[in-house]
Design goal:
homodimer, Dihydrodipicolinate Reductase, domain 2, Alpha-Beta Plaits, eleven-stranded mixed β-sheet, six-stranded parallel β-sheet
Chain lengths: 437, 437
C-alpha cells in the first residue's frame, strides 16, 4: 500500500503553454526534490504542444519534444500522462482529452468548462478505459476543493456545496464596496490589472462560477449535474449604491454559487447574494475564492485561498500528478460506475428566502403605499426599508430599498413583475437573495 | 484504477465506544447507502471493545462481537481494520495500534497524542508491515486537515502550517472577549457546557494544540517533528483586559499553533497571539478550528470547521475508512520511506516579531521612563503605548500596554527579565507575539 505503483519516472505531455502551462513546468523544476521524496518517482515533462514555438515563456522548453498537433501527445509512447491546459469545452481540448482516455492514458486538466459540460461522458470514457481523469485545478485554483469534497467529506451526506467561485467578480465587488465606484469603471481597472479578461462575459455573467458549481455539485451528490439546470446571474446589474445599502443593512454582496439538495431535487444557482457581514464568506475579499460545504455529521467546512493565477493553478495541477504518481485515483464523481444517474433538478422558484429589493422610484407621495400594497397582495411581508432623500444628481428619482421576511421565490417573482409595471418605478428592480452563507 | 481494491465488505473492529465511537457507528448506519455508492463496498462493524457492556450509548451494539481486551480485535480474523478510539499516547491505545500494524492490519485512529509522540516509530511499523495508519480525525476534527496538507498541497514547498487547533481555548477566548469575564469564570461555564474537560490542563495549557501542530508540521515538511521541540504556552495568563486592549489596538487574541521552516530549521510554537482583527484567522470564533498553510506556489490556504464533537470526528474517522475501502493509502508523513529523518529544530529565540507587552505598574511619575529605558537599552523600539488611568479597583496599580516594532525574540526576553525585576512593576509581565496570521 505505502509504496507507489511504480518507481519509474512519470512522464508528461503538456498541451497548452500559457501562464498555467509555464507555471507547471516551473513548479516541476523548482520542487523536483520534494516531488521525488513525496512520490518516490521523478515527474518529468517529455513533450509539449503549443501554437508558438518562439514565444518567451520564462521557462526552458528547448529540450522537449514539440508537437504542433496536441493529439500527437496521445500517440507518443513516452507520454504516460496527458496534461490538458488548452481550455475550452469543445475543439482541441475536448478532442485531446477524449483521445487520451480512449487510449487508456491518464489525463490531468484545469478545464472547468469541459468537465462541467461533458463530465458525464468523460466519466464513462475514464471508467471504460481505466484511465483516471483528474481536474483539481478546474475549481477554485489552488484550493484543494475537489479533494475536500470527493475524499475529505466522503463519509458524510452533504446538504449543500458552493461558495465564492469567481475571483474576478469577487475582486470587482470588493473594490466597488471599498471605493464606491460603479461596475463599469472597476471592471476597466480590473482589466488593466489583468484580473479580468478583455472579454469579461464568462466571468462577470456568472458562467465561470456556474461551471465550477456544476462540478462541485456533481462531486458532492455523486452524480452528474446538467449544466443548463444551473440558474445563472452575473453582477452587471449590481450598483455601487447596492453595496452601500447592503452595508447599512449589515450585509455584504457576494456572487455565490450554491447547490442544495432538497426533497424535490437539486437546486443550483449562481447569483449575487447578501451575506451577513460577520459570516465567514463575507470576509473573503478580492481575488480570493472560498468553497463551503455542509454535511449532516461534519457541519460546515469552508476553505479559502487563491482561485486563479499561475502559481496556485500549477500547484493544483501538480497535486493531481502527485496523486497519479502515488497510485491514487478515484472515479470522476467519486462513486462506483453503475450507480451514476443524472441528478434530478428542482426549479429555483421552489423554496423560500429573504430578499433585498432595490427600486428607483419617483419621489412623490403615495409611491411607498403603492409598492407595499403589491407586496402585501403577493403575500410578501417586509422586515425593513431604507429610503434616501433625493439628491441633486438623481432627483426626481430616488432609491427605495426593501428587505423582506422569508418568502417564496415564486411570490417574490410575481411581486417584482407587478412592481416593475408600476409607472412610478423608473428602473428595472434589482432583487438579491439573502443567504445565511 | 477506478475500481476499489475489492468489492468485499470492509470489516471493522472498534476499540473505544465513547462519543466518537458511538458517532462512528451511528454514521456508518445512517450513511450506509452512500458509503456503498462511494466505495463499492459495505463498511460494517463486526467487533467492538469497551469497558462497560451495559452503558446506553444511543446506538445498537447488541449484534456485535464484544472483547474486553482490545488486543483481541487484532487476532480476530474477521476484523480487516482496527479503529482505535481509546485515546492516550501510551497504555492500551498504543499497544493496540502497534499490535495491529505488526499484524499487517490497517489502523484508523483519532489519537493525536499517540501520533504526535510516537509517529516516527509508528511510521516505520506501518511501512515495514505494509499496513496503513490513518488519522484524519487526530487534527482539527471534521476538517480534512491531514488530507489537505499531505495530498492537496503535496505539490508545493510549504513555508508554514498551523492555525487555531484547540476549540476549547478558542471558545474561552471568544467568550472572554465578548463578555469581559475572566479566564476562570469562562472556563467554569465551558466545563458546565461540556466544551472543556473536568481537568482542562491538556486544552488550556496548549498541549492538545501542540500535539496537533506536531502532526501537521510532520506532514507539511515530510519528516517527524520531535514533540518536545515545540514551544508551548497556554492561555491561563491572558486577562480579560488583554482582550480589551487588543481590541483597542485593532487585534484579537487567539491561541495559535504555528510551524515555520527557517534557514536554521523548524520553529514550532503554540502561543497566544495578537492577530489583526480583519485577518481570516481572527474571524474564527467559538469552538471552531482553522488550519492555515502557506506554500511558495499556492499562497495561503485556510480551512475552517468544527474541530471536535461526535459528528465531525466521526466524519473524519469514516473518511479514512472510505480511503481504505477505495484502496487509497499513503505513507504516514506523505514521503517514501528511506527519506525520513527527523527535522532539525530551531530555537524560538531565533527570529523577529512585533510584541504586545502588558504590565501592571505603580501609578507614579517616572515609571514609564524606567520601563522605556530598559527597552531602549535592549534595542527594542516602541510602536505604540496605551495607558489607562487608575480606577478604584486596581489603584494604585495600573495597566500599561506597549506594542513594539519588529524585534528579536531574544532581545525581548532580555528586556522582559529586566522589566520584571523593576520594583515599580507589580505583576509578572504578559508578552504576546503579534502574528500577521
Amino acid at each position: 500500500m505505502t509504496s507507489p505503483s511504480s518507481s519509474s519516472p512519470l512522464r508528461l505531455g503538456i498541451a497548452g503553454l500559457g501562464t498555467v502551462g509555464a507555471g507547471v513546468i516551473r513548479l516541476l523544476h523548482a520542487n523536483a526534490d520534494l516531488l521525488h521524496a513525496r512520490t518516490g518517482r521523478t515527474i518529468e515533462v517529455v513533450a509539449v504542444s503549443a501554437r508558438d514555438r518562439t514565444r518567451d515563456r520564462g521557462v526552458d522548453v528547448s529540450g522537449l519534444r514539440w508537437y504542433d498537433n496536441a493529439l500527437d501527445l496521445v500517440s507518443d509512447p513516452d507520454v504516460d500522462v496527458v496534461v490538458e491546459l488548452i481550455g475550452g469545452a469543445e475543439g482541441p481540448a475536448r478532442a485531446l482529452v477524449e483521445a487520451a482516455l480512449k487510449a487508456g492514458k491518464p489525463v490531468v486538466t484545469a478545464n472547468k468548462a469541459l468537465v462541467a459540460l461533458h463530465g458525464s461522458a468523460l466519466a464513462r470514457l475514464s471508467a471504460d478505459n481505466a484511465a483516471p481523469l483528474l481536474f483539481e485545478a478546474a475549481v477554485a485554483g489552488g484550493i484543494p476543493a475537489i479533494k475536500t469534497v470527493r475524499e475529505g467529506l466522503a463519509a458524510d451526506r452533504l446538504l449543500r456545496v458552493g461558495g465564492i467561485l469567481n475571483g474576478t467578480c469577487n475582486y470587482i465587488l470588493t473594490v466597488m464596496r471599498e471605493t464606491g465606484q460603479d461596475f463599469a469603471s472597476v471592471l476597466k481597472d480590473a482589466q488593466d490589472l489583468g484580473y479580468a479578461e478583455a472579454d469579461p462575459t464568462t466571468d462577470v455573467d456568472g458562467l465561470d462560477a456556474a461551471h465550477k458549481l456544476t462540478i462541485l455539485a456533481g462531486l458532492a451528490f455523486g452524480r452528474p449535474v446538467a449544466f443548463d439546470s444551473v440558474h445563472v446571474e452575473g453582477i452587471r446589474h449590481i450598483g455601487a449604491d447596492d453595496l452601500a445599502f447592503a452595508r447599512q443593512l449589515g450585509y455584504r454582496i457576494k456572487l455565490l454559487g450554491l447547490a442544495r439538495m432538497t426533497d424535490d431535487g437539486l437546486q443550483a444557482r449562481v447569483t449575487p447574494c447578501l451575506v451577513p457581514q460577520h459570516a465567514p464568506l463575507a470576509q473573503v475579499d478580492g481575488v480570493f475564492n472560498a468553497v463551503v460545504a455542509e454535511g449532516e455529521f461534519v457541519g460546515r467546512i469552508m476553505v479559502e485561498g487563491r482561485g486563479a493565477g499561475a502559481g496556485p493553478t500549477a500547484s493544483a495541477v501538480t497535486a493531481d500528478l502527485v496523486d497519479l504518481a502515488r497510485g491514487q485515483a478515484i472515479t470522476l464523481w467519486g462513486v462506483q460506475s453503475g450507480t451514476v444517474e443524472p441528478v434530478r433538478a428542482c426549479p429555483i422558484s421552489v423554496g423560500e428566502a429573504a430578499f433585498y429589493l432595490r427600486l428607483r422610484v419617483e419621489d412623490r407621495p403615495g409611491v411607498i403605499a403603492d409598492i407595499t400594497a403589491v407586496l402585501r397582495d403577493c403575500g410578501v411581508s417586509l422586515r425593513s426599508m431604507l429610503q434616501h432623500p433625493a439628491d441633486s444628481e438623481t432627483a426626481p428619482h430616488v432609491p427605495l430599498v426593501l428587505v423582506t421576511h422569508r418568502t417564496s421565490e415564486a411570490a417574490m417573482q410575481a411581486a417584482i413583475a407587478q412592481i416593475d409595471a408600476l409607472s412610478v418605478v423608473t428602473d428595472t428592480p434589482v432583487m438579491i437573495r439573502i443567504e445565511a452563507a
